Amino acid sequence: MARRDQVHADNADGPWFVDTRCIGCDVARHWAPGLIGMDDKGRSFLSRQPHTEADTAALWRAAVACPTQSIGNREVVRPPAGVFPYELTVGVHALGYNAPSSFGGHSYLVLRPAGNLMVDSPRYARGLTEAVDRLGGVKHVLLSHRDEVADAARWASRYHARVWIHQDDADAAPFATDITRSEEVVDTGVVTIPIPGHTKGHVAYHVDNRWLFTGDSLFWNHRRQELDITPKQTWYSWGALADSMDSIAELNVEWVFPAHGKWHQIGVDHFSHQMARLGPAMREIGQRQWSQRAHTPFIWDE
Ligand code: SF4
Known about the structure:
Layout: E1 16-18, H1 27-31, E2 36-38, E3 44-46, H2 53-65, E4 71-73, E5 86-89, E6 92-94, E7 108-110, E8 117-119, H3 126-134, E9 140-142, H4 152-159, E10 162-166, E11 178-180, E12 184-187, E13 190-194, E14 203-207, E15 211-215, E16 219-221, E17 226-228, H5 238-248, E18 255-258, E19 264-265, H6 268-285, H7 287-292
Parallel strand pairs: 8-9, 9-10, 10-11, 15-18
Antiparallel strand pairs: 1-4, 2-3, 5-6, 6-7, 7-8, 12-13, 13-14, 14-15, 16-17, 18-19
Bound molecules: iron/sulfur cluster (SF4).
Iron/sulfur cluster (SF4) binds at residues 18, 22-28, 44, 66-68, 70-71, 104.
């Protein structure tokens, strides 16, 4: 529950507020753009109160997703039912309830006739477990890497699900049932692709030849309006990440779903166009310079 004794000084007057326990994960700004601002420390504040039902619904999604539960309403304490899972496109739901242990990473539920996929892990919360039950539970928990494990063990236990992780990050999930070493088939139409860089054991999951789940390696930069990587959080190897971006550049990808950063329906042609340039641009610009141009748009067509 948000703390009324720690409200951010810049909140717009009204029932909604953000408290100062915010860790600046950006999740609220993904769900409620235009309603949540960012101060010079990266923390969120309420830039305006909602005007419409759509605004209010967006704020409830931000509030329920927030890993520190820093977004509150002085008049309505409990969120309405059914805030999450939230269907982003037919068959793919955002799970919300982002976990503080994953620094607020997004997670997803992919509905499939052969059995549902949970990609990375949300908090294990009662409001979500019953909703996932109704959607058919989980057959596979797919972990992109060590930072997004969160409550995966509890989710897997609830559904007797298989848990997948790469061997180089597997110490973070000792309960995993399937340790991958290379590109492998998880289920029909579901492939795990090693993309080291952020961590050594980072993988992407390519699903049904149209969706790419990218963990902390590739995301839609909603400020720059382009695919992007995170230079400051590339812990293992910048060069390996550039090679990894090359390795996925020719995949058929309609949507990108990251753990950190914004999801986006990019379209197959636009994905190919941007990805053909991403790895070479990373090698040319370098990790330090990339981080210094964090808010400067990259001109993909120049
Ligand atoms: S989701 Fe919560 S912790 Fe993350 S930026 Fe928003 S208010 Fe801060």
